[in-house]
Amino acid sequence: MSTSTPLPPEALDDWLVALAAALELDPADIPVGTLLDVARDVAHNVARPAAPLSTFLVGLAAARNGGTVADIEAASARATELALNWPPDEPANQPGRQPGDAR
After folding, report:
1. Cα 27 from Cα 82, distance rounded (Å)
2. Sequence ranges of the domains in the chain
């Protein structure tokens, strides 16, 4: 059953436990605050739709680098730094873009 009503903030822990179990993960290994901070910084400094994509990429990078909480935090720090400095000063920093390209 699908619903368009978002979870109330107090239901976040229940959702985390249920999803972690479904994905065979330990909820204790998920730095929720760090991931929410990444999502916030990306949403505010890049674009709202970039937030979930960014947290997915943080998780993917962390998994490829060992999958520890420290790996998640390191990937999160990189994502946050990039988001807080977005857009880059030099168009050359954007793969596939040329100076003068429209956003």
Report:
1. 27
2. 28-88
